[in-house]
Design a protein that fits this description.
single chain; 450 residues; alpha/beta; Glutaredoxin; 5-stranded mixed sheet; 16 helices; 17 strands; 20% strand; globular
């Protein structure tokens, strides 16, 4: 009976959310592979709301995964440690991997969302496929979850597979990874560090390379593998032309096979050509050459150098005006609507297929309706799958909400609190540049004057 009692009680002990301290923080978050840490303040209302969800998720995880843990740190007692990790608001939730900060948690702030996030990290980052049935099932899952799917073949266990798994662990929330040792499933192609690097550059998660550098890209509809002589001929002609140009030293040049960059070409409105498609990426903006010729390319580069090009913006058609409390923005109206300097803007980036978005949408619209009479606040909806996402906004999951004060459009604040109507109103009431007419700073309705 004693042994049985220990077996029953052990999960309950492990289920407790670990209370961290400044001195023991590093050692505690290193004890298991993944630790999700909630940085909080005892007086914080949102923290009080999140606390029971965090604790319940911890109980569920204790019985399901041994390599993950939930922990919390009181920033009123250990402020120095919180500052070390850039915590400026509460609650802030961060994921640590083997004791090192890994990434921000920006998922749902409820029991199911937290549990699902950690369960995903508790599993191997890449699923091993043994049969063609495994392959079919795995790729079908990618289609149903609407997630990118990456499958790689490795002849044997080794450093290449380890590198692949390291990459997979970094993107485990956004991409489904799998590997196989059976060449009949996928086919054999040697995997090297260079090949892995090439793959990384071909993913949408490396858009920082397109935004930070001044990059001119030529998209061709033939690859070196399929048509090396023809591709090299055209590429060599282009390189001779580029070398003859002046004042291009700050531009980097890249050659790309259109089949590897379908999404980028779709964003340019040129998924089907005609090829070559030429574009410049700089500071988060993209510029498209309308019709390629050597002469037009020279003119295109010179206009870019002189700041005379107009950025290309991926955008839905501008919708007809409506009497709804929310405003729908598209790529071409984002600047006008969201960066309107006369109003604070609460914006929801969503995707049409996203279940969480469908759940939040009526609540977001109800909050907008309740604040419809507020002259200084605007609620905005934005389909992030059909329109460009301007800087400085970062959207890696749906829905993502930001509050952009009218005087600080370049530093919008991400909303990470509960997603009920009253919570949304409380957030807007607290963050609004001017106090709302109908609500106080705590989000409580003001009493009408007698």
């Amino acid at each position: 009976m004693i042994a049985l009692s220990l077996i029953v009680l052990l999960p309950l002990v492990l289920a407790d959310v670990t209370e961290l301290t400044k001195d023991g923080f590093d050692s505690k978050v290193s004890e298991v592979e993944y630790t999700l840490v909630m940085f909080y303040a005892p007086w914080c209302g949102h923290c009080k709301h999140l606390k029971p969800h965090f604790e319940e998720a911890s109980k569920l995880l204790a019985n399901a995964a041994s390599n993950v843990r939930l922990a919390r740190l009181d920033c009123t007692e250990h402020g120095e440690k919180c500052s070390e990790f850039g915590v400026t608001g509460y609650p802030t939730v961060k994921l640590f991997k083997n004791g090192v900060f890994h990434k921000e948690y920006d998922g749902p702030r409820d029991t199911d969302g937290i549990r699902a996030f950690m369960m995903k990290h508790s599993q191997p980052p890449s699923k091993k496929l043994l049969t063609m049935e495994d392959y079919t099932s795995f790729t079908s899952r990618g289609d149903s979850d609407r997630l990118p799917t990456v499958v790689a073949y490795f002849k044997e266990e080794g450093d290449s597979l380890k590198s692949f798994q390291d990459v997979a662990s970094d993107f485990i929330s956004d991409v489904l990874f799998a590997h196989t040792h059976d060449p009949t499933i996928l086919g054999s192609k040697e995997m090297t560090a260079k090949a892995l690097g090439d793959w990384i550059r071909k993913t949408q998660y490396n858009d920082k390379h397109f935004s930070k550098n001044k990059l001119l890209v030529f998209y061709f509809n033939a690859s070196l593998d399929g048509y090396p002589k023809g591709v090299n001929y055209h590429r060599n002609r282009l390189m001779k032309l580029l070398k003859s140009l002046k004042s291009t030293s700050d531009l980097k040049f890249a050659y790309s096979f259109s089949g590897d960059y379908y999404h980028e070409l779709s964003d340019l409105g040129e998924a089907d050509g005609p090829f070559p498609v030429v574009a410049i990426y700089s500071s988060g903006k993209k510029y498209k050459l309308p019709d390629y010729s050597p002469e037009k390319l020279v003119e295109f580069i010179e206009k870019f150098r002189d700041g005379k090009l107009t950025p290309h913006i991926k955008s839905e058609p501008v919708p007809e005006p409506s009497d709804e409390a929310t405003v729908t923005a598209v790529g071409t109206t984002f600047e006008e609507i969201v960066n309107d300097g006369s109003k604070d803007v609460f914006i929801m980036f969503h995707a049409p297929w996203c279940g969480h978005c469908k759940n939040l949408m009526p609540k977001f619209k109800e909050a907008a309706e309740k604040l419809r009479s507020e002259p200084s606040v605007k609620f905005v909806l934005y389909d992030a799958t059909a329109n460009d996402i301007p800087e400085p906004y970062s959207v890696r999951g749906y829905p993502t909400l930001y509050f952009a004060p009218k005087n600080s459009k370049d530093t919008p604040k991400r909303y990470e609190g509960p997603r009920e109507v009253d919570d949304l109103i409380k957030f807007v009431a607290k963050e609004s540049t001017q106090e709302l007419r109908g609500y106080n700073r705590e989000g409580a309705p003001k009493k009408e004057d007698l």
